[in-house]
Amino acid sequence: LALIRTLKTSRFSLLRLLSTVVRACPLLSIKPMRGLVDEKLQIVVRNLRPKQDVTLHSVHQSEDKDFWEDIITFLTFLYDACVHAVAKDASLSGTYVGVEAMGLMWSLRPVPGSRAGLRLRKKDVLSPLVFHISVHDGHVSQGFTQLTPLESLVIERWYMAPGVQRLDIRERGVQGTLFIPPGPGPFPGVLDMWGGGGGLVEYRAALLVSHGFASMALEYLTPGELKKLKADVNYFETAYQILQNHGMVQRDRLALCGLSFGGAVALSMAAYSKIIKPQCCVCISGSHIPLIKKSLDETFEDVMKSKIRIENNQVIWRDVALPITTDPTLKVDVGQITCPVLLVVAGDDQNWPTVESAEDIQQIMEKAGNHHLLQVHIYPGAGHLIEPPYSPHHRATNFRVQGKGKALMLWGGQAKPHADAQEDSWGKILTFLQEHLYHATS
User: Fold this and answer.
1) Is residue 384 annotated as part of the catalytic site, yes or no?
2) Alpha carbon distances (Å) from 195 to 158, 200, 205, 248, 269
3) What are the residues facing 379 on neighbouring strands?
4) Could you tell me which InterPro entries the record lists for this protein (predicted)?
5) Annotated catalytic residue: which of 384, 393, 418, 436?
6) DSSP H helical ranges for 338-410
């Protein structure tokens, strides 16, 4: 009996000790641990002491082997559960301040001592973005590699959902990547075009397909060289036909989507092509200038070279097309567009006069009588590079400028309003595409 009483007492003491230890150890919870990049995270830290300072640290190594990080510090007040939810509690310091549910993603920045002008972009969409997120006691701002965290987790953020097919396109002179959603199909399609940086950029198309659209990322420019346009209007028409004729694509449910220079291409094709007849068109940080009919206008290149400004060693391109020309032959006649158009405009765009272009586009379409087809969303404080949500803000990055080699290109914007613009515009883009590709009548 004495032995039994001793065992019972010991067991009770051990359980009480274990319970105390568990309560004393901070617990980090992140949901989802593996999800799409546009999914919101639920980040919660539990079992904190009253008035305990804790720092959340997130670090990511890019495919270029550069390290990016976020640092945010919380102070735990006298809450009963001593819990911190990132979506509800304010950061007191770090890479952002205040309540930001996704601040640990969009406030990413290169670690101190990194190369200048870095831009975080996903090249291989078949692999995830991997983040190491840890909790540290106290207010910490540096030296994380030498510290032992209270707890840490690894999460994955994907552009491409499970079950998506990725197909290389090398057909009829066209180069690109076609993404097909999982399921029986056929699906509405989107021809996706990036800007003057050139090359094949897949991650937006991969995210679009993850939302049910057969998306084709099109390569049409040699990286960094606007003058090396791979082909004339026939190239874009052929790419459109390749997408349209695929067995898993609804041929009468296609959209054009372009960023920056790609937006000018999309508007031009929607206005002039006899072959491309999209159901809708998305133009992100784009313009109706320059005009593309057969090839790039050499006189425009001359103007571009003379109007580029350099301030604080940063290249500012927005003056190239200012003032907006009144010559209708030097811009896309958007009055001829017969499909719905969505313009996503950055209010602090330092790369292109997108605000002034949007105003001119509205005037042209009002005069032509097709203004009812136009939606314009202007985001004050946002910069030129409006990307999928929760991507970090890049105010200036390295870029190859025609005739000048590599330079630091100023895109504009501030981190918080830019992050808000990316989140809001992505939702509007998906809604716009769903409305006109899935729900429109034939």
Assistant:
1) yes
2) 23, 10, 14, 27, 15
3) 346
4) AB_hydrolase_fold, Acyl-CoA_thioEstase_long-chain, BAAT_C, Thio_Ohase/aa_AcTrfase, Thio_Ohase/BAAT_N
5) 384
6) 354-368
Q: Is 260 part of the annotated catalytic residue set?
A: yes
Strands annotated E in 1-79 = 27-31, 34-36, 42-46, 53-61, 67-75
Domains and CATH numbers, the chain: 26-158 (2.60.40.2240), 165-438 (3.40.50.1820)
Q: How far apart are the first and last CA of the chain?
A: 85
- Of 58, 134, 260, 425, catalytic: 260
Matching residue, tokens 């909790």: 135
Per residue in 201-224, pLDDT tens? 999 999 999 999 999 999 998 775
Per-residue pLDDT, 79: 44
> Alpha-carbon torsion 116, 413, 387, 196, what sign?
negative
Q: Is 394 a catalytic residue?
A: no
Catalytic residue among 38, 70, 89, 349: 349
Q: How far is CA 437 from the centre of its chain?
A: 22
Look at residue 277 and tell me whether its pLDDT is greater than 70. Answer: yes
Residue type, 77: F
DSSP track, 147-195: S--SEEEEEEEESS-TT-EEEEEEETTEEEEEEE-SSS--EEEEEEE--
Contact yes or no for 421/379 (Cβ under 8 A): yes
How far is residue 11 from each of residues 6, 16, 292, measured CA to CA in Å? 8, 8, 80
What pTM did the predictor assign? 0.88
